Amino acid sequence: MKNFNVKNLLAGALILSSIGFAGCEDDTPDYNPYNNYKTYPLKELSDEAKAVRDYVKADAVIAHRGSTFWAPEETEAAFRWARNMGADYLEIDLQRTQDGVLLALHDGNLRRTSNIESQFPGKEDYPVSVFTLAQLRQLDAGSWFNIDVPENARQSFVGQKISTLEEVLKISEGMRIKRDIAGEPVKDMTRLDSEGDWAGYYEFEVDPQDNGNRPGVYAETKEPYLFPSMEADLAVFLSEMGWNVTDSPKVIATTPGKVDVANTMGRFILQTFSRQSIVSLEKVLPGVPKCMLLWEDESAAYVRPSNSIESLAEFINFSVDYNCHIAGPSIAGSPNGYPELTEPWMCEMYHRAGMIIHAYSFDTEDQLRKYNGDYFYAGVSRFDDPARTVSGDFEYDVNPNMFIDGGFTNLTDLSMKYQNREVAGTAQEVMDNLGY
Amino acid sequence: MLRKLYIATLALGLVATSAIGQEKQLTAESNKGGIVLTSADKDYQVSLNGRIYMDGVHYFDDATDLSSDASISDIRLGTSVKWGQWSAKVNVSFGNDEVKIKDAFLRYNYAKNSIFTVGNFFEPFGIEGAASSKDLRFIGASNMTEAMGIGRSIGLGYTYYTDKFYGSTGVFAGSVDNDNEGDQGFATTTKLVYTPIVTDKVTFQLGGSFTYRIPEANGFNESLNDDDYNREVVLAAGPEDKFLNADIQYARTDMRYNFQSMVLSGPFLLQAEYTKTKVTRDDDYVSRLMKDNPYWTHTASGGYAWPTTPGDYPGWYGELRDIETKAYYVQAGFLLGDNYAYDSASAYIKRPKAGSYEFLVRYDNTNLNDIDGTYFNGSYGPADLDAALGGAGNMSIQGGKSESYSVAVNYYLSDNVMFRLNYSYMDVQNQAYPLDEKIGMLKARVQVNF
Fold this sequence. Notes:
The complex is a heterodimer. By secondary structure, chain A is α/β, with parallel strands linked by helices. In chain A, 30% of the residues lie in helices and 12% in strands. Chain A has an 8-stranded parallel barrel, surrounded by 7 helices. A two-stranded antiparallel ribbon of chain A has the order 5-6. Chain A: InterPro entries: GP_PDE_dom (IPR030395), PLC-like_Pdiesterase_TIM-brl (IPR017946). Chain A: One of its GO terms (molecular function) is phosphoric diester hydrolase activity.
């Protein structure tokens, strides 16, 4: 082989190896959420939307279904307890009866939370939309709780009724359902159906056990295909009740030192997992605070674990487009074992878009401490020391934006205690005082 | 495995040599750096061939980290045997620690320009798609060919050529890579090239290729397709197949059209190809998918289900319509030290002589998107936003699209050794990689073949 060919061969080898060496250089940070959460492009709420966001009470304690722990969920007992316990919001799941009444019920049927097997045998799995309100009033929505949660069972829960939205609003305003001497709800015979029969409404009276708290209401709408145009019905109903803050809201008397959310512009918050419902809500109830609930699953309707940062950004950007002021991510940990969508980097992203965070759902003090960031601050709560400082060496650039602004709780009493807020007694004492 | 195949390959050559060697005396000679053993009457010939690609690649990546590295991307060993009008070739690749059968065929030359081939060999499709990687102008093919080219398949082919005409056709029954996840595919592919001008000064070529294919099965599923297999077509190209990657499921047929043109004039080269693909899909798959579960309703556990009838399912999941993609490239070259020469037997360019430099530029435009829906959160819904937000699906394919600009320098050290240096700049748009826009690639190769 000629000499110049050897030179060329060496030159080629040199180029090759130099490219190989260059390849070893780590020129770009690994693509993962921890390296990208600070810079991933996000939209940001407008100033007008931020003004609506600021209607919402800071550090909100949101009573998930009233209570799932101390009383049968979404009944009068649960909501009265949450109000007197000091919750800022009563959380409900909105559904609609066959005769168009909006009510509070979580499940897609009545099997778990009522005695429907005995009242309407064969219809256990029917959705609530096939029943009229009067039919639903025949159900006992309390006894199941005494069997499922015997440690908190009370005889007075027997015969609790499914709550209408109207009842929830009235409870927030300090009312209760009027009962006769036998303890049966008094039927409102001024409100009849088209046949001239009782339409299923009860009379109200001022709650003698009311302790002055006026919580707001935080209502979840379901997929619109289940209840078409329910968002529009809701808007009309809220206006009628004086609870639509964009349409002459009524003044609700409050007591200094007590919860007064029901008399603020943040008195009613909308929440949903459904993007379709968000679009409808923005159309019919603009200017009312809205929360985009987040769940994790490998499908377009949820945050995809396979590409969590892109997926989260997609949700955030959608939320900004439709003026969702609040992110409602799930939290991990027992007893629910929900997916983790409230990691510090995720919270930083929600906040960067101008949203606040109401995570769900809290059952333990450990969860409260974790998602309020206490473990980055040597276990010190910001409610104990607002000037707390980071203690330790973490992979994060730890800052207050990495934590929640409120949460849905099954134990309002625990959240109140965590925030060092004044309460009227223990959970059981409050329940006792209400006469249950 | 690697060792066994290597030994088997050598053994084939040696057995063939020794078998004939008992009858005929062979003469060893060198032909362009390779060893060729030839009988005195030239009727029998056996040669050993091989190649080594030593590669280095450095990515100037954007958001997604790509793996820059140096590698031995291909080691090829093989044997060719010729007995009069018959010939055979076996060729195995060991690159990147993978063993792959490459050329493995028996060929009958009915006449010098009339050839029958049976075995595993290149399907006649396009210019780059039917050419060996060692003869490509750049390191690797264009994105168009990487995504839509075909490569080798097992089949029976016939090729006929004259100075001005090249025609090749074949029927094929899948690839040697089939992992037995169901029936192999079927294909028929034809390439026709006409070169109206073939002179010492100018060569001008026009041609077209067409392939009709039943894609390979990638798994059994009794709900899909008439023959119970899911068939898929994957079109992928570019760095680590990330930014250009269309995975078309539930495929029924796969058709591809290629148009090619080439002009050679002294040291100048102009070459272009355009390819269009159309994959038809099993449009009734949803009904079949749902046949055992036609009525979903509110469930006992309190969950929700879609209150649809079976007839609603295609609408709900989205119509499995046909998917079309297209791509093209144009490249120009300049040879320093030689002129381009046309080889009518392959309808391609001969290797430039030793000592030549070759300078090239290429523009490639590859679009693997066929979208008619609304994209959000990793998948598609119907074009109607309300329906999309309600959760209905759409069967759009988002494989990404790119424009690539490349430059290359080749140095042909000898008939057996060449150096290649490429730089490509790729402008990518892929919704699965929303932060990646500009990717740079510097590649080098020392290429040895004999």
